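Service request form, structural biology core

Requester: graduate student, group of Dr. S.
Request type: structure prediction, single chain
Budget code: on file
Notes: please return the result as structure tokens.

Sequence provided:
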Amino acid sequence: MIVGHLPRSVLALVCAAAVGLGACATRPDPADTEAVEEFRANNDPLEPLNRGMYFVNEGLDTLVIRPAAEAYRIFLPPELRSGVRNVLGNLRTPVILVNDLLQGETDRAGVTIGRFVLNTTLGVGGIFDVATGFGLPGHAEDFGQTLAIWGVSEGPYLFIPFLGPSNPRDLVGFGVDAASNPLTWISGNEFFDAATNTRIVLQGLDTREGLIEPLDAVRNSSLDPYATIRSAYRQRRAAEIMNRDTAAPAARGTGFGAGTGGAGQAR
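Core staff response, request fulfilled:
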């Protein structure tokens, strides 16, 4: 999704999250060192607010988002979904390239450019990922990662309906990535507006479709799905910031949220 095109209701929830910063979780007794350490490790001082937002998101997901993702899976065969995912990843090249350069990753920037050229030409507009076969595997970068490389602290954990797990650093990065993507500014007629809205919807459907089984597993097996998702998100972000090729299985399974570099789009 792109911030500038989010529904007003979602933006209102984001604002509510910001206003609710005072709704902090009760800090444990300083004498209980284990509880204090766990509190710090979770980095979730706004837990009551976040759990409320998670509850709202679960309702929206059950009623609207997951059924839409299931329909997307049913009506689009795997080959077509793969093509959609590849095109979405190709369209995100400007954001990845900018952040490669801002992080001083010139080699990765070269790979990003090479992938775009090969996939746009030989890959028929990005439908086919031919670049991987030429030794240029995909990767994701976003401004939240760039800020982390620059030494900016993540801030407290946040959960925002529709956007999912995040933190202040990644929310800022999410907005900057949207602003740095030329596609954000292409408008002015019905065709471009329809194309932009279609891209946003497909991006959301593609991400959620890839998470059907992992999130179902978390809901069915975890005693506290909220805490599991929180831990997995933070593990995944740490792996992405360090440019590790793989993250913990749990982190891979719940790789969504604001500022994750577009879950699934670098595959």
